[in-house]
Amino acid sequence: MAERPLFLVGCGSDDHMITKNTDDALGKAKPLVLAGDMVSEKHSPVAHSDGDAAYHAIMNALLLAIGERDIGYHFPDTDPKYSGMSSEKMLKQVMGFVERKGYAVSNVTVMITAMEPKIGPHVEKMKQNISAALDIDKAYVGIGATRGEGFGEMGSAGIHVVATVSLKNLD
Predict the structure, then answer these.
(1) What confidence tens digit (pLDDT) does each residue in 102-142 have?
(2) N-terminal to C-terminal alpha carbon distance within the chain
(3) How would you class 28 by CB atoms within 10 Å of its CB: exposed for 0-12, middle for 13-18, buried for 19 or more?
(4) Which of 2, 77, 81, 163 has CB 3.0 to 4.6 Å from 61, enough for a Cys bridge?
């Protein structure tokens, strides 16, 4: 059996359409949440869970780094038990997978593309939330945001997030 690598790197992404109509099928408001921070009550993600695209991209990056399948496999949108589920809860489960494989997060970067709402005012809170969720120093969490001018529908009616993580072997 091959020796476990000292470091692993994963890249993940997530996309959600955004609507200004915040009523979901149950008539409840679903605010736009990114990395555990409510960034807008006027914008609502079209999603089965809470639609936190930042946490979803991070989870995909973590799962792929350890050779697992993506979050759609582990948390299928066809399963009612995940309807409206907190992405922070899902992230804790994914971190359990990472720890059982003998790894810990070394650093994470997140790049968010959305025309609206403005992400800049929320970056520090998102860094703090990611730092706490992944049990790493905030100095090792990078977040960038772009409006994606001229990038068609995704920039104007949706959100696109790409995350990269590096994991260190705990042995």
Answers:
(1) 999 999 999 999 988 899 999 999 999 999 999 999 999 99
(2) 16
(3) exposed
(4) 163
Using a CB cutoff of 8 Å and minimum separation of 24, what contacts does 36-40 make?
36/87, 36/88, 36/126, 36/129, 36/130, 36/133, 37/122, 37/125, 37/126, 37/129, 39/117, 39/119, 39/122, 40/116, 40/117
Where does residue 109 fall: left (phi above 0), alpha (psi -120 to 50 degrees), or beta otherwise?
Answer: beta
Residue ranges of alpha helices (H) inside 22-138 are 53-65, 71-74, 87-100, 123-134
For the chain, list the domains and their CATH numbers: 7-169 (3.30.1330.50)
Q: Which residues contact 8 (CB under 8 A, 6 or more apart)?
A: 65, 66, 103, 166, 167, 169
pTM score, whole prediction: 0.92
